[in-house]
Structure formats: structure tokens, C-alpha cells
Amino acid sequence: xxxxxxxxxxxxxxxxxxxxxxxxxxxxxxxxxxxxxxxxxxxxxxxxxxxxxxxxxxxxxxxxxxxxxxxxxxxxxxxxxxxxxxxxxxxxxxxxxxxxxxxxxxxxxxxxxxxxxxxxxxxxxxxxxxxxxxxxxxxxxxxxxxxxxxxxxxxxxxxxxxxxxxxxxxxxxxxxxxxxxxxxxxxxxxxxxxxxxxxxxxxxxxxxxxxxxxxxxxxxxxxxxxxxxxxxxxxxxxxxxxxxxxxxxxxxxxxxxxxxxxxxxxxxxxxxxxxxxxxxxxxxxxxxxxxxxxxxxxxxxxxxxxxxxxxxxxxxxxxxxxxxxxxxxxxxxxxxxxxxxxxxxxxxxxxxxxxxxxxxxxxxxxxxxxxxxxxxxxxxxxxxxxxxxxxxxxxxxxxxxxxxxxxxxxxxxxxxxxxx
Length: 420
Fold this sequence. Notes:
Radius of gyration: 21 Å
CATH superfamily: Alpha/Beta hydrolase fold, catalytic domain
Strand order of the largest sheet: 1-2-3-5-4-6-7-8-10-9
Low-confidence stretches: 1-22
Strand content: 15-25%
Helix content: 25-40%
Distance between the termini: 58 Å
Mean pLDDT: 93
CATH class: Alpha Beta
Largest sheet: 10 strands, mixed
Shape: globular
CATH topology: Rossmann fold
Oligomer: single chain
Number of strands: 10
């Protein structure tokens, strides 16, 4: 392998957004005329009860659980449900920051299975909360790619030596001071603290070994991959904040960009305690419909990032039409809670139209709760957000990123959805 090939391989392992590097596979489809005819799996089967009150009960008691099981078996893998013990250790704070605008805290969260207290996973959590005397703030919780120090130039944030990124490297993606000014807390952890994100991943670290039994050394074919592990970690962080003095754990949004957007959606689908879910440029395995075969596809992900999903997911490479699920089902599983999906015009790898259409197709489940979906089934023009009672969408001009434009609309949406 020559130097150029080694560099290309490294880039492909670091991100699924291959379009960022001009490294799309040769068979990538960006032509709407080549999108195959497809029919989506039904959210509600034809033999389900027909009376509206019964249909909603059928969804809540039966069909939603069936869909989550299908997503586990065919996409993300089943996550262990064993009880765990959470222990928090304050590493720093609360400390006033940004000229008294907010408080910063840094904690270490230790997670141990109750059946195996000798096993543990430690996660460093960074928390910013606005100074609102006597009031708990709603919060955005999301993982970061490059260590907690990447989200701000704040010199007191602890450096994560494993991340390899400089302080403030991704500050534009987080807009910490703006969130505080708008009255929101921000909670984040480095995704690699929960589970490593590299193509050599053999599942001997992260949370997976906490639950191995009887000589097991890796997840089964239909057990959790790394997205499942990240989602599990996000729910444990949320649980650790139940009695937090500054954050209202009942008004939390889970947010993610790119592969962490895939994770945010899977987290929100499984964990009903998140009141709002935000997917930013999540693409295949996130908000985009698999069956469109547009941009990133399953077979593109196998070698560089197949570990994100369960191993059974790989069996649908080149045959997405045979998947018993598609991503409108993932989005529907979040109903009736708030859901915002965002795309970017220069991120065709993530299939913006497919992300939008999945949200449109999730509308029947929101309607079971008397909630109107998006106002139109036609993709809106760039920079013109659209929303319904509990769903929102925008297509932003620009590249695969999280920008101030995105955050502005997430915050406006949250003002309506996370109000006391």
C-alpha cells in the first residue's frame, strides 16, 4: 500500500462522511433518476385494530416494541438491560464561567453492573449550566468526537489525552455561550470514553465486556455495536443527572452530528425520558431511508465502520430492499416526543432528501396523538425550516457540519418543546 492509499484508508476509518474528503466509493449514487422504486415497511400492519383509540393503544403496547426489536435485530443490535450502579465523582466545580454567565462542572461517572461490581467503565462528563437562581435549566446532551476540550477554548476543561485534538477544535459545533444565554445547559462526553471509534475495534473494551458471560468475547451477531454502546452511555449520563441541582433531567434533548446523529436517534427511540431528539446530518443508519440507495449505503460502511452496527446488519449489503425495517420506523418510535432532523446541501452522502422523507413518513404515528406533521411532503428550499406540532426539519446551505444556523433553529424549537 503506497502513502496515498494509507492516507485514504485512514480518512475512511475516521468518518463515514467520505464526501468530506472527496473519497466516495465509485458506485455512490447521487442521481435521483437512479433511485430504485421502493415500498417502505408498514408502520402499522394491515391487521392492526382500526378504531383510532385502539390503534394508539396497539402502537403503545405492541407495535412500537415490535419495531424496536426489528431495529435491534437488523441494524443496531440488542443492548443489555442488566441493572447498573452509577457513581459520580466531582473533578471540578461548580465554577463561574464566561463572566458569570454560567457554571462549569466536570465529573467522572463510574458505571458498574450490579451483578459484577468488580467491572466498571469510567466516563468524564463536562457540564455547563446557566446561572438561574432557584431554577433548573433544560439541557442538551450529546457526545463529542474529539474530547471535552474540543468544544470550547475554556482553558480549565480537562484534556483527554486519547482524543488527540486541541482545545476549542470544534467550538463552532457547540456554541456554549449562546446556549447559556438562551437559558440552556450543555452536557457532553467524549464518545471514545464510552466506546472506541476505530476500525480495529474488537469489543474487548468500552462497555461490552461489562456484560460478557460464560466465556463470551464479543457481541453476538444481533447484539449491540458501537452506536448501541454510545446510546447506552448517553442514557446512563442522563440517569446520573436525575437529582442534579442545576439541570432539569425531565427537560433534556439528546443531540448528535453525523455518526453521533445516528446514535442520538437510536438513543431517543429507546429512552423515552428524553423529551427531544436532534439529528444533524446523520445519513445512512440515521435519518435517511436505506431503500433509496442514495449516497452512503450499507456496503460502503462494512469495512471501515461496520462495528457501529450489529454484525447481522452487514447481511443486507446490496439488498436494502429486504430489510424488515427502514428509518421512518426509527423516527416514528420517538413519537410523540419532539424530533428535529437537519440536513446540508453539500452533504449528499447523507442523503438530505432521504432524511426529509423519513420524517414525512413517520407522520402517521404522530397523528395517533393528534399531532400534525410537517406542513408539506415536498423538500423545502435551503435555509427555510419547516415544522409541525412536534417535528421540525431544515436543509441548510453548506457542508457536513453543525453551524450557528443549525443551533439557532434547534434552540427556537426547544423553546417550544422543552418549556416547563
